[in-house]
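input
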Amino acid sequence: MDEVNDPSKATTLAVVICTHDPQPDQLERTLSSLRQQDLPYAAWELLIVDNASTNGSLERVDMTWHPRARMVRESRLGLTMARIRAIQETTSDLILFVDDDNVLAPDYLTRALGIAAREPQLGVFGAGVLEPEFEVAPAPDLLPYTTMLALRTVPVASWSNDPQDACIPWGAGMVVTREVAQRYARIILDDPQKQRLDRAGNTLNSCGDDEFSWVSCEMGHGKGIFPELRVRHLIGRSRVDRAYLLRLAEGHAFSRTFLRHLHGLKVQQAMPPPSLGRAIGRLLSLRFGDAFYELHRWSSDRSRSATDRAFDDAKRKGIARFFRTIHG
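output
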């Protein structure tokens, strides 16, 4: 008998939804996907953390279908604070974080327990398939940038103990061991700077997910992503708006630079956009190497689309915001 099916060795699991002013229809689909899990309700608990919601949508949520479901309110605004509250409220061996716009495959919980049993070296792991369900189709020129909405499909499972590689589990369907979760909570509460890595209200900062992987690796554990863990991500029309995606690109650039800085890694100012005037000025100053380099940058940039240039500008703004933040 394996550990998942042996009650004497069963790994306990808490499923947590951290939410702020959720869309009722999306949250209902998230809960419906949990209701349809093939793992018996007795094998897991369900916790909703109401992160200072104001729209009243959580007042109508039905949790009576699950015998071990409850809701708590966290008044400190921010996904990081909501996750820490969830860690404090639960005692399970594993915590599975689910966003309020995630539809989990019916076998997600069972498979997560199976991975935890056969890969004990992992402190955090998550979905290898995060596929979108768009309310409206993104504009063709924006489609390449929708990966920022936590979308991915990997062909094979992979794990590592290098927090700087691409094998980083994201928050949608992320599973964290109790040991790593508690260490994460202590680190975040001791360092107010790290509390700025994730979203709070309307801000679009990110990288709170990445910090779980950093903590796991620093503790000597690994992190991984598995295509057998499948999530459908419900994406409303406002999140494929050009302005929103540009704000998201700026937030990602700010947060990733901030994360590197917090872990003692070298960070660099973003290069300014290429300029024909700058190239000519360097040519007149007889700085021929610099002039030709800038002219090459300008010529290459002209061949790119206006959308690509706009997203590059957004990333530069994010990096510039980081340097303004640390230098006051």
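quick obs: The longest helix spans residues 242-262.
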